[in-house]
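Q: I'm writing up a methods section and want to include an example of the input and output format. Could you take the sequence below and give the corresponding predicted structure tokens, formatted cleanly so I can copy it straight into the document?
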Amino acid sequence: MSYLASNYNRRKISFKRGKGSFLFSVKGEKYLDFLSGIAVNTLGHSHPSLIKALNTQAKKVWHISNSFEIPEGEILAKKLAKKTFADKVIFVNSGAEANEAAIKIARRYFYSIGKPNKNRILCIKNSFHGRTLANIFASGSKKMTEGFGPKVSGFDHFRFSDLKSLKNKITKKTAAIFFETAMGESGIKVHSSKFLKEVRKICNKKKILLILDEVQCGIGRSGKFFAYEYAKVKPDIVPIAKGIGGGFPIGAVLMTKKVSKCMIPGTHGSTYGGNPLAMVIGNTIMNEVFKKGFLNNVKKNSKYFLKELNLIKKKYPKVIKEVRGIGLLIGIQLNVELGKFINELTKNKLLTIRAAENVVRILPPLNVKKKEIDLALKIIDKVCAEY
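A: Here is the clean output for your methods example:
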């Protein structure tokens, strides 16, 4: 009997250790981990730089209240600002927290400039921003919100990458447009650069903030540090998490100086957000991701992986409907039952996870080796051949 609640549909496997792109079960079985804790393990498992950083800081100080200055946080905030659009950063502990904070910041900004009624957030229908109360209603998903009433108001919704739908939903009360640059949980769907540029123009014209959720697609997973960089647009607010911690709980909200002015003492806080342990891990991830050639290697591996997956698709058109994605955020949309296909991959020692629209979500570590991609391709081909 387990004393854990049943809010997760857990697979009957547990792991005792990990190394690089592999996990080793308590039974001694070796699995290729192309799930990466759902885009969390940026550098795979047991990366020496992360182990060293964590062990070194653990001998100094773990936790300090945000009532005091935290030098490690100042260093990470500066690194994030220097490498991105941002001028200011707030640290939290997860993607859901970062998205909640982004919603608060957008509303608080307009309140601070004398427009308290400009407070509605325009999101994509059936999107995903986490499972806290505001975030599930931001998603516009009946499945996610069922049983959690009364409804959290203040959200409107448009169809994915549909400019006409978006424009029709904008009102004088719209404070921000909020969506993932590349959607993960919702089925690995990537907005075009043209769409992102048009949304930025609309935001400028209507004096609306642009919030781009890069919790899953950010921190190098797209092949650039942030996926929005492909479109050469500048957002106003960007929530991040997952990859910036490499397995350690970290979240953050990046924002422009203009927007940040509304966040005075008492407007937002997090007991654990920005703790020294988390900050040294974040700094280490930044150092690794910005090493020469790292992001180019993500692009190179992505190009190869997508090309080979499309060859498998051509080979098995009755099994695979579409291959899509950006960087190492990859989806295989199936013509067959999703759960069974993922189970067969797992039996063959390849770990993946589901996404919406009957999609297998593939999220390797960003430092994955070509031979590990080849092993994954071999397993996927084998499973397809069984249909």
